[in-house]
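Hi L.,

As promised, GDSL-like Lipase/Acylhydrolase family protein:
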Amino acid sequence: MRRFISSLSSVLLGLCLAFATVAPGLSTTTAYADTESSTTDTTTTREETPTSENLETTPEDSEPGAHSPAPALTPANNPAPTPGAHQGEAGATAPNDGALTGPGELPAAKPDAGNETPAVVPGVPAGTEADSDSDAEPADAADVPDATPGRMPEKIVQLGDSYSAGNGTGVYSDQFCMRSPENYGSIVAREFGAEYTNAACSGAVTADITKPRHLGWTGGATRTYWLPRTFFPTVEDQAAEWQRRVEAENICGVPPAPDMYYEYRNVAPAPAGSLYTASVACHLWAKPQIESVTPDTDTVFLTIGGNDANFTGIVISCFIGRDAGTCQQRLSEASRSLPELRERIAQVLSAIDTASQGNAHVYLLGYPVLISLDSYVLPEGPAGWYDAGQQLVEMQEEANELQAGVVADANAAIRTSGTPQAQPDRFTFVDVHEVFAGHGFDPRMGANQSHAWIVPSFTSFDILSFVHPNPEGWRAEAKVLAEAIRRNA
């Protein structure tokens, strides 16, 4: 009997140990089954929604910013919205049916904050925070950036057109505005160790200083979204949600520069019940250049006005097409536009002074001498009858005097608004004609250009560099500008 009881005890102990070993496995299996069941439910819900295989439209262009497919919806993570309400409205949530091309519900794109102007606290230098508990004395007036002679540049902003941006250097940070790290502003900023922002843009006119500028169409794509009429009852509602989603998907990509942005245009919409299909056209814009000027900007460089006088038309007609009649017409039109141009440049200087709150010294650089000849007759050869060179030289001299006069008037207006000591001159005209004398290009076909600091036409594949300073020319302008800054110090 004692042996029987001992054997029975051993068997019972073995069963207990076996159960203890198996029990954790039973618990894990149950948890996995629950998860599997949940996944199956979600999959069933997704099967009721059309898939991307039969609805996706592939764009011809590349689609930067594509995202992973949207997560499946369940009543737990997508509460039923109020019928007819739009996503983003109080108390309403739009369904996350997912972009049929891949992206799911994404937050609306945030506006670019890269160029926001920091708050200016009186008595506190820009870039610092006011500390109410500090025992430090209030900032001295000399700590606040201003245009008073005696200060070297610390924060420079460059505005203007291609003669400011950098055309002709051969080195560019973008292909839309042709901004170069080797233009005269960049060179001078490095020399003085100053902070520098290049907001100039090739092709700019005076209006682009204070207004946005359309830089052109850059591409596009097509998107189809499932937008149930329960939540988007009208075509207008669907269009608005489609617009929000393509912008959130970032189809157009990242703008080339912080002061540029994309406009998403809805092209060829094709709504069909709960499906909304349309193409997006990406249009690139540059913000108003003046937005780069803030109260803590102490120096502004500027070359502007040539495109208001149709500089591109002059180059094409006189130095590329070389048609005497068209060249004469373009130069005559440019000469007649100079009085109006004077007023436009004056408005630009005033806008810059206002944006900087009078703290910036503005350096307006004139245009370089373009050709090295006093006379250039078109058409070339014995049949020539129109001296384009003479008229161009005369017009450039007149434009130079005009810009110098605008600067003199701006300084006079400041002086009459207060005492000269309290309101020093804040504008300087930088004449680069003298330094470029003998360094314009020879417009004659096949001429020797070894002396030229201006890029001759037909000498490179970079058409936008034609009749602009080459690297030597940009360095020469930088030298003249640096000398002007030191004279004001």
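The chain is about 35% helix and 15% strand.

Thanks again for sending the construct details.

K.
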